[in-house]
Design goal:
By secondary structure, the protein is an all-alpha fold. The protein folds into two domains: 42 residues; 43 residues, no CATH class. Helix content is 72%, strand content 0%.
């Protein structure tokens, strides 16, 4: 199940209860997935707090880089992860 579908199922459960996904037709499921994609696109750009948190991890990988480079690396990792989720290539 893809991350998009897991998120869409969570939205469906929030709106209608834990078993509502099974009662939805394909169009309704696709509509929820479109909502999830829209949200992911909206949060694709990390804020400074997210970049700082990610930079703490990246800093251990490249300790000789500047703080600005660590922030950029962390932001790029976030964007790449969101892009994979949106593309469906990360499905398991």
């Amino acid at each position: 199940m893809s991350g998009i579908e897991r998120a869409a199922r969570a939205v469906a459960a929030l709106e209608g209860g834990s078993n509502v996904w099974e009662t939805l037709d394909t169009a309704a499921r696709d509509h929820l997935k479109d909502h999830v994609r829209s949200i992911l696109n909206a949060i694709r750009e990390p804020d400074i707090g997210m970049m700082e948190a990610g930079a703490e991890i990246v800093r251990h990988v490249g300790p000789h880089e500047s703080d600005e480079a660590h922030l950029g690396d962390a932001a790029n990792v976030w964007r790449l992860m969101i892009d994979v989720l949106l593309s469906g290539k990360g499905n398991v």
